[in-house]
Amino acid sequence: MPNENKPINKGDIVETEIESLAFGGKGIGRYEGLTLFVEGVVPGQTVRCEITKLKKRFAEARRTEIIVHADDEQTPLCEHFGTCGGCLHQDIKYTAQAYWKGRQVCETLQRIGRIAEETPGMGNEAHPSPLEYGYRNKMEFSFHGIGDSLKLGFKRRGSETDVLNIHSCPLLPEPCADIPALVRDYCASTGVGTYRHNKGGYWRKLVVRYSHSSGEIMIHLLTGPAKSHHTIKGLAKLLSDHLPQLKSFVHSTRKGRADLATGERLISLTGKEFITETLTRSDGTEVSYRITPNAFFQTNSKGAEILYRKSVELAAPKADDVVWDLFCGSGGIGMFMAKDVGEMIGIEVSEESVRSAKENARLNGLENASYIVGNLASAKGLPEDLPRPDMVIVDPPRSGVPDPSLQKLIELEPDRILYISCNPSTLARDVEKIGGNYKLERFAAVDMFPHTSHIESVALLTKTV
Fold it and tell me: What pLDDT is attached to residue 6?
């Protein structure tokens, strides 16, 4: 218990040894009976830190000084590390990142999902990404300001509005490295400012997509609505002149308040309306995906290949299986698995993604794969006239599977549920909710997001009765 003669207060400076890394990126230390969650630390360090939030059994703290360094420390590659809201772990060697992320998934499944320690996959580190840097196939940049003060980059750590000007990013593939600076300088030269709802302005988002298999680049510029969009033609020409791999330049507008990198209205398209990414299965055959401007696709192509191969290995699909692929995006894991099953049915709320998935099925010659639009957050989101599935694949957003869909999934009673998750907490919660006649048989963690706190998991649940 804390020393009653020396009560701990917010703002106090204390010393602690960092024992481990919690999900979300904070280090765990101890002080006077309290568990400390400390920002900006590496397991193995001894640090001084300032108490920023104090509760009965734990406190949150900010590192002020490193007293003893850790073996797993490394020098961050990016000059913006610590101020940019993206990477949290560039100061930790990548092998250690994979280890701690694997532990985080295991501990979360045990604590929330009540998964037995002997379950296959427990105790394993995360499968590492083949690329430590330059692995992103999609990056979203935000605009802020006007004229010479115009910024293009990522949100500053701890802020929802302040943008940190980023000329490039080490997570961006090398062929795309110059794009943020080129776009920022051009947009700044126009004297036009950032779009604010009902307050004028124009620039909103820049989305850069890259195919690791073909080398194709797509640039998607989002602005506010305007009477004239004449400034865009000059930017399109500038980028085309500098980027021989640029195959698609898309301009769309977005009027809504939500700060999303999704276009509401297509204004112009130069070049192709898609770029193509190809992944290789364990048997050496290839699966290709046409990626359109707003369609969802895993943001680490090389990591997706590992995740999808691992998913097929865990699911052990059968030639006569009927499979439902919920939250299927542009085809994703279901399309990767379709050659191994009897029928694949994908369901997704985005009409653009469904159109893309249908085209991808034709591209890959998959006559047994079909795709339909369905709102999976609604009790009526799953059509009633589909054949009963032997297996259901779910790849939901970070919030997990909405309750109506989860209840429908339980009622369907598929033999197997393959759950792909980007949030181990909601994975564990949903596994606990499914419970009953299902057992989490085995799982794996795959690191799709090096240097960040995010981790992808795939879990196989099998019906026990």
Answer: 65
Query: Band of the pLDDT at 81, cuts 50, 70, 90?
Result: very high
* pLDDT single digits (tens) 184-204: 999 999 999 999 876 789 999
85: how many CB neighbours lie within 10 A of its CB?
17
Query: Which residues, in sequence order, are bridge partners of residue 443?
Result: 459
**CA nearest to 129, candidates 445, 427, 393:** 445
Give Cα 67 distance to the centre of its chain: 34
Question: Each residue of 411-459: pLDDT tens digit?
Answer: 889 999 999 999 999 999 999 999 888 999 999 999 999 999 999 999 9
How many whole angstroms separate alpha carbon 92 and alpha carbon 229? 45
* Long-range contacts of the stretch 334-338 (C-beta < 8 A, 24+): 334/369, 334/393, 335/287, 335/289, 335/360, 335/361, 335/364, 335/366, 335/369, 336/279, 336/281, 336/287, 336/308, 336/311, 336/312, 337/308, 337/311, 337/312, 337/393, 338/364, 338/366, 338/368, 338/369
User: What is the token pair recorded at 65?
Assistant: 């000084």
Mean pLDDT over 132-159 rounds to: 94
Measured distance CA(155)–CA(59) in Å, rounded: 26
Burial 95-111 (b: 16+ CB within 10 A, else e): ebbbbbbbbbbbbbbee
- What residues contact 349, with CB distance under 8 A and at least 6 apart? 373, 374, 375, 376, 377, 381
Provide the pLDDT confidence category of residue 97 given band limits of 50, 70 and 90: very high
Nearest to 337, CA basis, from 372, 357, 311: 311
Runs of H (alpha helix) within 112-230: 179-189
User: What's the distance, CA 116 to chain centroid?
Assistant: 27
Residue 253 in tokens: 């507008």
Please state whether the predicted TM-score (pTM) of the whole model is above 0.90.
yes
Amino acid at 193: G
Q: Is 347 within 8 Å of 374 (Cβ atoms)?
A: yes
- Predicted local distance difference test score (pLDDT) of residue 253: 97
Note if 422 is an active site residue: yes
DSSP letter assigned to residue 281: -
Q: Where are the beta strands (DSSP E) in 111-191?
A: 138-144, 151-155, 163-165
Which residue, 17, 6, 42, 21, is CA-closest to 107?
A: 21
Distance CA 189, CA 172 (A): 24
Place of tokens 């195959």: 247
Closest by Cα among 404, 434, 408 to 419:
434
Strand partners, 203: 194, 223
Catalytic residue among 84, 176, 187, 422: 422
Sheet strands (E) in 55-137: 58-68
